[in-house]
Design brief:
The protein is an alpha+beta fold. About 30% of the residues lie in helices and about 35% in strands. It has a single domain, classed as 3-Layer(aba) Sandwich (Trna Endonuclease, Chain: A, domain 1). The protein contains 2 helices and 5 strands; from the N terminus they run H-E-E-E-H-E-E. Strands 1-2-3-4-5 form a 5-stranded mixed beta sheet, sandwiched between helices.
């Protein structure tokens, strides 16, 4: 596993715990769809939640959330719709996209967290 992939997995695990501590029920992680991977699928307040996690140890390429472009959000939306077609085909539950950005320059300390809820590709 590459160093970047290991950091991403570590960030996703941290984000899953962070969400659980806030009342989210994590249903799945690293869900593959034809439109890309969904980092975390959860349920919160009666909604499906599809979470993109971005983790960085430096700001050489900007803040972690800078990597979540409109194109990435459009892929997230398509991936979420694909997931829902299989897991909620009747469309009984509302859903939303969220982004968790982790800036983690020191692995011996907790990361700096920015969490956006109800994100749209617009």
């Amino acid at each position: 596993m590459t160093r970047n992939r290991a950091l991403a997995r570590r960030g996703e695990a941290w984000a899953a715990r962070y969400l659980q501590q806030r009342g989210y029920r994590v249903l799945a992680r690293n869900v593959h769809t034809p439109y890309g991977e969904i980092d975390i699928v959860a349920r919160h307040q009666g909604q499906f939640v599809f979470v993109e996690v971005k983790t960085r140890t430096t700001r050489g390429f900007g803040w972690p959330e800078d990597a979540v472009t409109a194109r990435k959000l459009a892929h997230m939306q398509a991936a979420a719709e694909h997931y829902l077609a299989e897991h909620d085909p009747e469309g009984r539950y509302p859903w939303r996209l969220e982004v968790i950005a982790l800036y983690w320059p020191r692995p011996d300390r907790p990361p700096q967290v920015r969490h956006w809820t109800d994100v749209t590709p617009d």
